[in-house]
Amino acid sequence: MSRYEDCISSDSDSDSYVSGDEEQSEATGGAGVLTLEDDEDTTLIQQNEQVLVQAMDVYGEEHEEETINETTNEKEEITEETTEDDDKPKKKKKKKKKFLYICLTSCKYDSVRRVSRRVGFKEVGEDEDWNLYWTDQSVALERVMEMKRYQKINHFPGMAEICRKDLLARNLNRMIKLFPKEYNVFPKSWCLPADYGDLQAYSRAKRHKTYILKPESGCQGKGIWVTKNTKEIKAHEHMLCQIYVSKPFLIDGFKFDLRIYVLVTSCDPFRIFVFKDGLARFATQKYLDPTHANVDNVFMHLTNYAINKNSKDFIRDDEAGSKRRITTINKWFVKNGYDIDQIWRDVDDVIIKTLVSAYGVLKHNYRTCFPNHFKSSACFEILGFDVMFDKKLRPYVLEVNHSPSFHTDAKLDKEIKEALLHDTMVLINVGAIDKKKVMEEERKKVKERLLHKGSKKATREQMDAAISSHLEQLEKFEDAHLGNFRRIYPMRGSEKYDKFFQTSGSLYQETAAFKARSEAARIQREEIKRKQEKLDSILKKKTSGRDPSELRPESPGGGARPKLLTKRLSNPGTKPVRRFTNGTVQRAENKVISNNEVLVETVPIDSSIPGAIVDDEELERISGLMQRDNLVRGLGVVEHVYRLLHATPGTSGGHYHSQNKNHSSQPRLHSVSFQKFFF
């Protein structure tokens, strides 16, 4: 029997979780249970002690608490012992049992409470010291950052990356751009309104397609509708639009999907398990290809249980009804000659790839919130994957639910969901971390900080060796407590997913669009840098050999030039002047620096007073004007301005383009006027 075919018979194993007292005995794995009554026969106690010794040999002292906690009560055992000095019997109290505590303040499901009591948890309030916190909502970073190392919570921070429909589509769209063949695991999707233009362009190119619209976040089929006309979709609506799988795989003529329960016990590294049983949810009317007439028939095109349970055609039958076990579907596949092993290999592949698309965010958030959790994962999560097959039996993930319903309004739901909860609470091994040991380590660290004693930090090799040893012990525990789960990652051959992990990790920091923008910005910066270097080299050549104090200030009057070296004026008899802001002018004595240079001291100039014109400065000014004139004419600015102002009031039109014989004289007049216009 293959590892997939054994799912077929697992439905009978789940019945044991419904029957009163028998449930509690099976929850303890069939081992002996300590009772409230004293028993002269110590065989039962010895068996438990042997179990503890074996557990300590394999898992250490931390496993002792878990084994003890499988019972619900313990009575003090009074033993008599005599001493050499006194023959009176002494009362010796046996070590009190340590309970595991669960907080269910934010949980509305009675099934979770029943199973937690069966496993051996004691319910406490939110303000009390708990080992396991179970909530129906996603968790905030503030809550998980306050957790202690011996505590666990049933959600990962950041799992919304695949549990929100819009974020799931964005993550998978990124991956499919990089791996178009490997990541064909979900229908083509658009996140509206951001992708509205792409959707309309696609609908024009691919006519006769059917689309399904879903809210960005939601459950139970609320707000879902189907259309064949994208013009009915409003541009401003925040929705997820997907290509409708118009050729689904049918059983007995009905469309269906699978609710597959996936347990993630660790995100760095991933440890992923699939529950062997689950739910197959059927539409209540036989499927027909979507047309404009039937797209509004939700009982034909939607498989959500919350919708179809209201249909008059809903059938309650485990073998042929509107809701069946996955094991029943497996039997149908085998009976009709389908390769059940290949079907579930493909489903496992879709689940792993979907989770890998969020690996970067999950890892970052987890390491941010739990920097010191290396030996045991502080989080776990039960995810509800909704998977549908096309007519070629290729699986597609439709959505992922971070809090699948644990309501047990039918016997079928009770058997499957309570078995799922029981095996989950056993597999996560809440008692693996010793609370007392953790508290002692924390006190020791605080004491060392207060006394400024630096403890020796473990080397990288020591850390890797410790983590490797822990993973080996963890795998042994998982193999012994899988229950009705099967591990899909890591497994033999999981190396093929390594390339997806590397890419997904980089996507958290660099999306494809971000990388493109960064590359364009880098090229632009390099171009600007080259231009700046070229300009600096030109300016350096012009200013080489000149004193930096000769440079003019950027703003007029922004600062006086205390000393300026200029060439001798054209009239050597003219003395340089000292100008004052009050309008007075005073001649200054020339201090000869060389045969051709004099030193002139100046102060801020009053432009209302005429001053002597320096020949070199005037030549430089005229040269700049000529360069500007040539530039303006070379760019065609003069002709463009003429066309704009041609024949408008206040201008003389008709001369510039009408000259024939007077070609040399007319443009000259216009050029002068335009030069005055610009300068």
Automatic annotation (TrEMBL):
Keywords: ATP-binding, Ligase, Microtubule, Nucleotide-binding. Residues 1-32, 57-90, 532-579 are annotated as: Disordered. Residues 532-553 have a biased composition (Basic and acidic residues). Residues 77-86 have a biased composition (Acidic residues). Pfam families: TTL. Signal peptide: none annotated. GO terms for biological process: microtubule cytoskeleton organization. Gene3D superfamilies: ATP-grasp fold, B domain. InterPro entries: TTL/TTLL_fam (IPR004344). GO terms for cellular component: ciliary basal body; microtubule. One of its GO terms (molecular function) is tubulin-glutamic acid ligase activity. Belongs to the tubulin--tyrosine ligase family. PANTHER family: TUBULIN POLYGLUTAMYLASE, TUBULIN POLYGLUTAMYLASE TTLL6. This is DgyrCDS9840. It comes from Dimorphilus gyrociliatus.
